[in-house]
Amino acid sequence: MPDQNKQGLFSRLTAILAYRPPKRNTFVLPELKDEDSYRVTPADREEMDYGEQEDGRETGEGKGKSKKKPVRAAEWSRVRSDKKESGGRQDEPAKISPDIKVSLAVIKREFHVPQNIDVVIREFKLAGEVDACIVFLDGMADRNTINDFILRQIMSPVPFANYRGGCRMEYIAGSVLAVNQTQKLDQYKDVVLQVLMGVTAIFIDGCDTCLAVETRGFEKRSIEKPATEAVVRGAQEAFTENLKTNVTQIRRIIKNKNLIHETVIVGRGTNSLISILYIRGIANPAAVREVKRRVKSIETDMILASGMLEELIEDSPWMIIPQVLTTERPDRTASHLMEGKVAIINEGSPFAIVVPVTFHSLLQSPEDYFIRWQYGTLTRLIRTLAFFMALLLPGLYIAMTNYHQEMIPTDLLESIARNREVVPFPTIVEVLMMEISFELIREAGIRVPGIIGTTMGIIGALILGQAAVAANIVSPILIIIVAVTGLGNFAIPNYSLAYGVRVLRFFFIAMGGVLGFFGISAGMVMAAAAALSMKSFGVPFLSPAWPKGTGPDQIIRYPVWLDEERPDTVNPLNKRKQAEIARGWTRGEPPEGKRE
Amino acid sequence: MLKEGQIGVFEASAITTIMIASNVFFTSGWSIADRLGPAAWYGILLSACTALGGFYILFLLLQRFQGQGLVPVYEAAFGRPAGGLLLLLTASLFLFNGAMITREFVEAGKVYFYPLTPPSLMIVFFLLAVVTLLHCGLEVIVRSAALFAWPLLTALLAIFFFAGPLYSASHLFPILGPGPVKTLTTGLMRSSMFGEVIVLAVFVNALQGAGHFKKAGVTALVFSGALITLSAIFYTLAFPYPVAAENTIPLLALTRVIEYGRFFQRFDSIFLFAWSIVAMLAVAVNLYAALSIYCRVFRIDDHRALLPSLAVLVFSLAILLPDISSIAFIYVNLMRQHGWLIGFGLPLLALLAAVVRGKKGGPAGA
């Protein structure tokens, strides 16, 4: 034992000093031989081995072979010829086979059953006689509907007492199921897609179609107050992540048979539903067609939010200013639809995208229409002023203090000079420090949850500002400049536009710092050129102001009774939105005996 | 072919007005005040009326070649080689104008606002904005002009208004100034100031017809004539002749003397905004006209490919002259006196040539 201890000590010492290769190999992600080919041919990707359990057995290492259930040769040939006709993959039947075993095999293979544990395939005897099964996704479909209104009815022989032969699927849809929506499908790919959406698919042996039954019933957030577009006098409802709820909210406002709702599936990986809404007879058909063309042409793996969709469909995604309007308010979406615009809602996003839009519409708030027109006009003017302040104020301050001191009144100049005397940095460094600090506070305030975030923002700004002045890092007037700029930015009603202004502000700070008012003028010309060259779905971004066009209700909020026409910029089919005399009562006389 | 899009009468009038009226922001005003004194304002009116006559000749020429721009018209009237040469001469005028306005602006900026800034840096930033406009094309240039037209007009009228307390009617006398003969000859020669209206003939295809061309041209001449006359009147009212003749940039001088108590004074820096934007737009449209003619003469489809070389050329031309007095001499005295030969003389010559050679044309080409 003492020898062993001695050896042990020696070996431990050796271990410290000498190199020893690691006992266990670490994992290294291997490079694919031809990465691109896996991207373009999903079939190859599917054939790759994921080391999953298939039929209760390990598939082993290397290129795995997927196990298929045996199918009769004649049936396999028929399915194969069907697939060839439809131009699909040769090893995958396209049309639904009347043999339920084939259908089960296809569905299991498509959904990777049994590895994929959410897919439920319930096999049973229809009316106690015929082989049948239902397929649904656990969690996406409502179990109560399936149990009480599908399984209970189709498993019992009682509802089939009046069945006199013919297609069982037709009979079930017409006489057995007590559910509100059913659809007959004859392609496997449609079945797969519907099941992924939460629909339940019913297969019956001997039927070459499948019945898709509406059973969507997943958890969702309830309707809440708008977080970024709060108003005082308007509705207090915002969109949710659920597409149906969002469309219903719009339909509750526009009870019009011409409100058309179409859906497009986008995202090869996520199969996200994109809703396109417009009012037939008002929206310009060319605009609607263009929206559909752009949305349908998207080829991407996933679209998780309206922001991603926005970038994929807007005219100039390189520009800083957005060319679409995003809103979380159903009433605002509805009002734009009534003006002849098109709304696009992305599944899973509580925001609607409205197109085409102009710069003016980004500066408008729904509140403008909920208060008297005079107040609405005043708030719009304030907002326009806020926009320019948020954009230019720090740049102008730098330009004035560095290059154009003569235009500052002497008393004010003295005050600024006195305060700046103790600050060791040039003005531009001062401004950049404060602007970056402000951006930091704002970003941190958003990330910190709940009320703490807001409090931290306010306290942070106060303490930081006060401390910076006390430490002679910045001058007090700069705190005022940055604070007013921040307020101006918050007054911009569109979140994306406000972001754009934040970015552009740094550009104007740089231009003002380099060449004063002349630099800012050059920046203004460049920004104007960019804005004037932008279009939103064919509509010049700065119209109707430039190029000139008719259309009231831009900066001045027209009185409701004078706001007679829809915006000319979107070329609506029906231009007039109300009668020439909207207040019909002004034409008539009060009843006899009620006159003054 | 160059794609110039479509422009409206308002936009076309705005850009031409800005192009012509940009003279009031520079040394031209001083030159005419120096020559005509109290008679400057009606000397300018005389120039504007002469220019209207010159524009009528241009209109007749374009009416003869319905639906065609200046390039095919000159090529039809003079033949392609001679027409091409004359067109390149016209393009050179626009190019020279652009380069000279750039240098004039930079020199004046250096004298009044940026004494320590190297002129080359100012030219680079100036050209950055101009090239952005040129890159975006004619539609964006004219829409920028329409966008800034009202703020610029407001700024100009505000200067005239706020300088009110300085006005003295006695400064308008002697009303005949240096005498009717000198006023008449200077007024006629100074119609060159309005010769830039020829730019509309270059863009006539974007203007949708001769009717719109006429409307835009007349509006631009009347507006710019009124603005330049007004500025001459107010400048004369504010300064007596001996003082007026000393100010290099009259409008800037007018802005600097505005004073309303201790707080409201020295508005000249705000004036810099209007001044810079007008200069950038004027240079952009001059250079675009030069590019447009050049591209059409040499059948080049996209003007964007020429922008880097154009920027270098303009920079070189602008930096070539040694100082502001050389600019005043060459640009103001030479170009402003004889520019009408290209603005109105060549169209008259083309009209005569077309009549003599029996050339006419429709939209399909002569």
Descriptive report:
The complex is a heterodimer of chains A (596) and B (366). Chain A is an alpha+beta fold and 596 residues long. Chain A has helices at residues 2-17, 35-40, 42-47, 73-86, 100-111, 143-155, 168-176, 188-196, 243-253, 285-296, 306-313, 330-338, 359-362, 367-370, 373-402, 410-421, 427-447, 450-470, 476-491, 495-533; strands spanning 53-54, 57-58, 119-126, 130-137, 182-185, 200-204, 210-213, 259-266, 272-279, 325-327, 342-346, 352-355, 535-536, 539-540. Chain A is built from 20 helices and 14 strands. In chain A, strand 6 (200-204) and strand 7 form a beta hairpin. Chain B has a single domain (24-357), classed as Amino acid/polyamine transporter I (Up-down Bundle). By secondary structure, chain B is mainly α. The chains are: A alpha+beta (596), B mainly alpha (366).
Observed structural traits:
heterodimer, A: alpha+beta, five-stranded antiparallel β-sheet, B: 366 residues, mainly alpha, Amino acid/polyamine transporter I, two-stranded antiparallel ribbon
| Global Rg of chain A | 33 Å
Number of domains of chain A: 3
In what order do the strands lie side by side in the largest sheet of chain B? Answer: 1-2
The string of secondary-structure elements of chain B, in order, is HHHHHHHHHHHHEEHHHH
Strand order, sheet with most strands of chain A: 3-4-6-7-5
The overall strand count of chain A is 14
So what's the oligomer here?
heterodimer
Helix content, binned percent of chain B? over 70%
* Topology, number of strands of chain B: 2
General shape of chain A:
flat
Work out the helix count of chain B: 16
Q: Mean pLDDT across all residues of chain A, rounded?
A: 84
Q: Which spans of chain A of ≥5 residues are poorly predicted at pLDDT below 50?
A: 54-67
What radius of gyration of chain B results from the CA coordinates? 20 Å
In this structure, how is the largest beta sheet of chain A organized? 5 strands, antiparallel
Any idea what the CATH superfamily of chain B is called? Amino acid/polyamine transporter I
Low-confidence stretches of chain B: none
Question: Strand portion of chain A, in percent?
Answer: 5-15%
Strand content of chain B: under 5%
Provide the helix percentage of chain A.
40-55%
Secondary-structure-based class of chain B equals mainly alpha
